[in-house]
Amino acid sequence: MSDNPVTLEFLARQQAKLLDEMASFRDDMTVMAAILARVEGSVSALITETRAMHSRHARLERRVTALEDAP
């Protein structure tokens, strides 16, 4: 058997350490979720911007075609 018996004080310290680690993990997950939300928002904005640019280029192409086809 061990020279150091398991006491309630030892168990309480171990539980406090585990609770601190869990709080740290929870904070890490909150940060990661916020980063992911920011990236997702950036991707959505990029898609919107790309669609707008495509529409703008298509409109310009129609104008150039109309000018080329004009007598």
Percent helix: over 70%
User: Tell me about the biggest sheet?
Assistant: none
Total count of helical runs of at least 4 residues? 1
Quick one: overall form? Answer: rod-shaped
- In angstroms, what is the radius of gyration? 31 Å
Q: What is the residue-mean pLDDT, rounded to a whole number?
A: 92
Strand content: under 5%
Summed up:
The chain is an all-alpha fold. The chain has one helix at residues 8-69.
Describe this structure in words.
The chain has a domain of 31 residues. The chain is mostly helical. Helix content is 87%, strand content 0%. It is rod-shaped and about 105 Å long.
Features:
single chain, 1 helix, 87% helix
How would you summarize the topology of this molecule?
Layout: H1 8-69
